[in-house]
Amino acid sequence: MKFVTIWLFATLGILLSSSLSAQPWVSKMHNRSTNFYDIQQAFNADWGNKPYTRGNGWKQYKRWEAFWEPRVFPHGIRPPQNYAWKEHLKFQRTFPSSSNTGARNANWTPMGPFSWTNSSYNPGMGRVNAIAEDPNDPNTIYVGAPAGGCWKSTDGGNTWTVLTDHLQSLGVSAIAIDYTNSDVIYIGTGDDDANDTYSIGLLKSTDGGTTWHEVMPSSASIFGSKIFKVIIHPTDHNTVFLASSTGCHKSTDGGTTWSLLHSGSWRDMELKPGDPNTMYLANQSFYRTTNGGLTWNLVNVGLPQSSSINRAEIAVSAADPNYVYFVCGTSGNGSFYGLYRSTNSGTSFSLQANSPNIFASGMTGSNTTSGQSWYDMAIVASPTNANEIYIGGINVWKSTDGGLTYTIKSHWYYPPTVGYTHADIHTLEIFGNKLYCGSDGGIFKSTNGGNSFVDLSAGLSISQFYKIGGSEQVPHKIIGGTQDNGCNLLNNGVALHTNGGDGMETLISPFDSLVVYTSSQYGGFKRSINGGHTFTNIFPSKSGSGAWVTPLAMNPQDNDMLLAGFDQVYLTLDRGNSDSPISSFNLGGDLLRNIAIAPSDGYTHFYAGTYNQIFATANSGSSWTDITAGLPSSAMSSITVHPNNPLKLWVTFSGFQAGNKVYRSDDGGTTWVNISSNLPNIPVNCLIYQTGSADGIYIGTDVGIYYTDTLLAGWQQYMTGLPNVIVNDLEINYTIGKIRAGTYGRGIWESPIKQPVTTPPTANFGYSTHQICTTDSIEFSDASVDHAPNWTWHFPGGSPSTSTAQNPKVVYPATGIYNVTLIVQNINGVDSITKAVPVSYQPNILDFNLQLDNSPIDVAWDLQDNAGNVIYSSPLFGLSGQNNQLIHTPVCLAAGCYRLIMIDIASNGLCCSNGSGYYLLTDANGDTLAFGTNYGNRDTTDFCVNQPTPLSSGTSITHTDCGLSNGSIEVTALGGDGNFMYSINGGAAQASNIFNNLSAGSYTVMVEDGQGIQVSSTAVINSLNNPIAVASASATSIYLNQGGIANFFSTNSTNAAAYSWKFPDNTTSTQADPSFTFTTDGVQQVILTVTNGACSSSDTLNITVIDNLDVTKVENTANISILPNPIQDKFLLDIEFMKTQEAIEIVIHNALGQRVFWQEVNQVKTYQQQIHFGNEPNGVYVVTVLNKDMAVSKRFIKN
């Protein structure tokens, strides 16, 4: 079994374009085993000293580099794509957010931006890569944002609703909607152009986007790949086509199963209008099929060599199904290579035009060597005019003569002389008379052939923020720097676009909210003194020479003093008009990434850091001390200083080095304390301290926000309401008590700050495994919430028997069930929990030997039991220093069947391109259970050890006495692995096989062995000696003129120890068979009650007493016939009345007096009906026919 391993940030960092192979740094990025620093070196060598010019793709690479470098520092090795998400879920399972005060205090709501006004040149909301219109409702539109998820509008784009905030991936680049059912939606996740967000492959919703599930082929070949396009077959909605980085795939059952139609990476795909068996694929080449993908032909006639182009897109038109357009970019510089057209369904092509350069940034296309077609390229053809096409690069161009000539229809500079669409076009779509454009700034629409465009982006909160800065004076004012959309001053959800390009570090003066600082990439700092309407360039000596996000800090005590980090720390005392260095670091060509000024001593205490060094000064920069010693080798991502103590500071770390996320120093960096505690292994991007708290700190990570303080033993999620999004920056506004988060893809959010804990803690813990080797220890993990950092553990029967460690390890003498107690406390109280922990020492000791090759972070393995549960999971092997090692792991298993899954990141197994390696699993006899070498990216082996007898169970039952709960069930289990746990009716499992004190009823008995294999059965406990009352009379019609006497009998009653009769005049009798004299006429009741111990039963007779002078009393009677009697599952009820009756009730009671049947009929003289009685238990029943004048009964028995 083979599959493509998921990689965290695979789309963040791998592939700027799957087709830019002519540039060596891009081709290296395709190979997951290529080191980041090798790619960086290749780019620098390829680019050389060429100057930066707009629209050449340099910025897009640098964006990728800036994102990825801190996450792989210092080794350059890229971990699996889903690694951070798995770590986040692991934390959630261990520390459920619903039970901690952090989650309860957090209540995140979006602040925007939701719309923009402009004082610069390229405003926008955020990037849009995909657009789709509901085929059943033209007012319903979907957009995919590569970092902001999937959004839906039901009013033509006036308002928007996000559908994907709960997903692990917020990037969406492909959308398809089922034309037979609009609730069925497919989305391709990730970023198919810039590749700087998560991807988890293809998702499907069947409820209009409320919920989503992964749609992957059984081979998992799409899992984690980039999805470029999804197309639903025009006449069979269950057939879906997929163009992805792992091939062209087809599903005929709505995504349940898939087949590979064509291997390779395909940027675009189209079906011939009217003939879906004819398909086209494009990357750097063009392929076509005429038999639904069974066979494919490479088309060369009229098309350029694949080595000459970097990428291609295709378009077709329903106006002429034989037309196919092929637009492509130049491999060397990304400029317009040409537009080619086929008029014979892709059999051959001819060049239509290769100029002007419609991929350049200018309005005339006269610059022939610039473009970034690997990043922004789109084409669409009119469905009503096959010669009308639109092509997008940085701008939108139109041709009405099949691509021979072009007219620019929109431009990226605002306001333009033509229509405005934000720079960098990623998708163009036509639905009806509407032309949609998705760009780096949002979604735009034209209804007049591109002559003008309307921005529909208002309401799409999809901005990708690097940094934010708030105003304490004006709480609703926030300035932020965004990817693609510059700097924006947010005021009540509306963004004033103040600066173009990419926005970075921003500040608002705490003394004057009109004083605003912004920056672009590499430290292009600007200052405004009128609230962001006009700006002045500052830091003149170093502007533009810093890191991608160049750090800037303001002295909170002095409005004029700022520090900026370039290759040195630069100081300005006049708001940036002039500057000078105050450090002389030897950084070896590196740049400063973080700057911090001590709030309580802003003139003397500063801190500055690169990724791997941090420096401190206590004398205004006259001298600096390297305080790096004691810190990990991961990339430092932020520095925060205590508001009142200049020597107390925190630093955070990016990357995937487990346990090294947050460090604190209480002595200015002389010593450091690791406070990462229980944090998941996720990159940490920023930290903020909450003034006035018990050292409360918040951190922003690649998956949300976490909080801790000195009153808590560990970190808590602080994410309620927040999407699963990268958080790059945090700010606190104390005026309103809110914390703000700048996210990478979902704008700015705010929440109330954490309040002190006012409730006792909640104790909880987990433990490592049920199946371990003899003498191995079980590791217990504290999962309590809201507790102070102290623990009291009790392990009766274990060694040690007590512990005060947070996560102790305990050895037990033998297999069994042991009680474990944990006690925790805080200032509000104490809580404890006791759990019965099953310990199962397994006799089957297997040897797992893993011989690594020399590929970095090459391999990992999982071992699953028969139920699919992962019982062993290895770390990633092949880290620095592990190459070519032989790693031995003993594995102890219960008898049963298992699955070994090998995963290889580089997709080359353990052989042979990077040396020779292998994996070998043997049993205690040395027999081979699993072996492999050259297995690609995944290998699966099923094996069994000492296969046990199948699990079975039986029960022995003790029934209850009448009315008591003294029944019992004893369970006998056979087979399995012998480690049985028992439960009834879904209750808690127990080691004892006997359940006592049970009342009468039906019970579901479950037996589970140590392998998780279950078997269930049903046991019924009956109540013994139940009395049943059956009353009868000498006659049911009595005449007063004949004396009115009737004899009553209890002869047919069963299990009766005592009798009680009740007569119409309220007199009683305890005789078994009494008599009674009636004195008045009418329908009268006689009730028999029999008892036996605590149980009783009653039966009622209806006696008709007739005055012989009243003829109507005789007429108001009925004859009841029941056939057969006794009955089984059904019977015929036949009633004949002496005269026509009104409002007749027909009622059947059981022996307990409970009504089991009722019917009302009117105006009847005869009644016949077949009664179905199969659901009623065996016993004695009474049918009664009555109205206001009569009551006649008849008894019957069900066998």
TrEMBL record:
Residues of the signal peptide: 1-22
Keyword annotations of the record: Signal
An individual GO BP term: xyloglucan metabolic process
Every PKD domain range: 761-839, 1048-1105
Keyword Signal: yes
Entry-linked PROSITE patterns: PKD (PS50093)
NCBIfam families given in the database record: Por_Secre_tail
Protein name: PKD domain-containing protein
